[in-house]
């Protein structure tokens, strides 16, 4: 994957008349230590609204669609994930806000480490001051 925040990679897909098979065999520079997914989301749901100190994530819309608004190093980027053939890189120190979920959306996240609350930056002011360092 391109090592740039919010970059979206098109995944290799094997198409068949009976359906498609999409492969994520990542060259992402980290070992996947955790997989989680958001599902059953309401259309007005807003998730994320935090950054991680060290965690790197790759995000996919394996079903439905949603938007990912990101801020990193003072740069803003918004990506709409609407195809299971796309994977979006979210490096550390990226503020993310995930919204506009369709009712069938499933947001799959591949993460470089196990869950640690201490890795979260949940306060936007703290994130902004760390970003300015
Ligand atoms: P959070 O990461 O804040 O969710 P989102 O960014 O989607 O809004 O996590 C929601 C809750 O789930 C919070 O109480 C922490 C818990 N959680 C775990 O225990 N393990 C995990 O791997 C994750 C991602 C969350």
Strand-helix topology:
Blueprint: E1 8-10, E2 12-16, E3 19-23, E4 34-38, E5 47-52, E6 57-63, E7 66-72, E8 75-81, E9 86-90, E10 95-99, E11 106-111, E12 120-121, H1 124-131
Antiparallel strand pairs: 1-9, 2-3, 4-11, 5-10, 5-12, 6-9, 6-11, 7-8, 7-10
The structure holds thymidine-5'-diphosphate.
Quick synopsis:
This protein has one helix at residues 124-131, and strands at residues 8-10, 12-16, 19-23, 34-38, 47-52, 57-63, 66-72, 75-81, 86-90, 95-99, 106-111, 120-121. The chain has 133 residues and is mostly beta strands.
Task: Describe the model.
The chain is 6% helix and 47% strand. The protein has 133 residues and is mainly beta. Strands 1-9-6-11-4 form a 5-stranded antiparallel β-sheet, with no helix packed on it. The two termini are 27 Å apart. Thymidine-5'-diphosphate (TYD) binds next to strand 4 and strand 5.
Gyration radius, in Å: 15 Å
Mean pLDDT, as a whole number? 94
DSSP helix count? 1
Principal-axes shape call: globular
Strand content: over 45%
Work out the helicity level.
Answer: under 10%
Broad structural category = mainly beta
Low-confidence stretches: none
SS elements, strand count: 12
Q: How far is the first residue's CA from the last residue's CA?
A: 27 Å
The strand line-up of the biggest sheet is 1-9-6-11-4
Reading the helices and strands in chain order gives EEEEEEEEEEEEH
Bound molecules: thymidine-5'-diphosphate
Largest sheet: 5 strands, antiparallel
């Amino acid at each position: 994957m391109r090592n740039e925040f919010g970059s979206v990679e098109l995944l290799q897909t094997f198409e068949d008349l009976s359906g498609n098979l999409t492969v994520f065999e990542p060259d992402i520079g980290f070992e996947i230590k955790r997989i989680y997914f958001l599902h059953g989301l309401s259309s007005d749901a807003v998730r994320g609204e935090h950054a991680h100190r060290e965690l790197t994530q790759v995000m996919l819309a394996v079903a439905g669609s949603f938007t990912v608004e990101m801020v990193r190093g003072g740069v803003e980027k918004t990506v709409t994930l609407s195809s299971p053939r796309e994977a979006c890189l979210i490096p550390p120190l990226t503020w993310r806000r995930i919204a506009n979920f369709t009712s069938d959306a499933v947001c799959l996240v591949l993460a470089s480490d196990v869950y640690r609350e201490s890795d979260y930056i949940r306060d936007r002011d703290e994130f902004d001051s760390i970003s300015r360092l």
